[in-house]
Amino acid sequence: MASIKRPMFEAHVLEGLCRTIGDTSDGLTGTEIGQILLNSNIPDIDPQNTKWRRLFSAFADWQNKNQCSNHILRFVQDALQPVRYIGKEEIFHNRRLEVNKRLAFIGTEFTEQGKFRLVEKATTIAEAEQRASRLKHKLENRNVHAAVFEYCKAELLVENYFHSVFEATKSIADRLRTMTGLYADGNALAETAFSTSNPLVKINHLKTDTDRSEHLGLCNLIKGMFGLIRNSTAHEPKIKFEITEDEALDILNTIFYIHKRLDKAI
């Protein structure tokens, strides 16, 4: 990156970057900002101002004089070095993802390894949001089943928790229909597929009471997901059925578990 003159940030994008880095609640401290500006050879021309305005003044002044963003990127790299965030991994990921939403507009991304890489330049806010989805990152870290991403990719990329879980739950029904050739839906689909007298899907050999309990347990878990998510979200407007990020992660992990059990079905 150092050998290439990187594009300048537009003023509104640069402001967003400064607001992220200098956030009042979890951004860099004033002392850290001063030290990293010094390390990056960017004059600290407005040290008495608020943190983000101080950064904006320094970045805009340097960028206008040099017609590139290289030293600003050097600042970002120093500010987001992973070693600074030992014991604060969640803050690192959140800050990196927010910064990447802004870097996307100059065709750059900051990796978890503390390096920059070139990416296709974003032209819209939606593109920048998609690349830096926090929910998608957390799910990838948990090695969530590919079927979850297949059915709710667009919703995940814009962090739409309501529709993410709704679409992911559909993946279970579609998976069962593919495995069994049935055309049913909801509880009827699960009960027919997991019938103990004529099962179309078996997660074990159904030879013991324990086997049958496990078999019916998965059936009931699937029916529970249909009742909790598909029926509720299908009949309630989004504003009345709010799902937080943590709730979405818990639900998607349950769907992930169901798919893993279906992977091993007889």
From TrEMBL:
InterPro entries assigned:
CHP02391 (IPR012654)
Per the database entry, which stretches of residues form a coiled coil? 118-145
The answer to whether keyword Coiled coil applies is: yes
UniProt entry keywords in alphabetical sequence: Coiled coil
The reply to whether Coiled coil figures as a keyword in the UniProt entry is: yes
Q: Which residues form the Conserved hypothetical protein CHP02391 domain?
A: 142-262
What is the top-level taxon of the source organism?
Answer: Bacteria
Identify this protein by name. Answer: TIGR02391 family protein
Taxonomy, top ranks, is:
Bacteria, Pseudomonadati, Bacteroidota, Flavobacteriia, Flavobacteriales
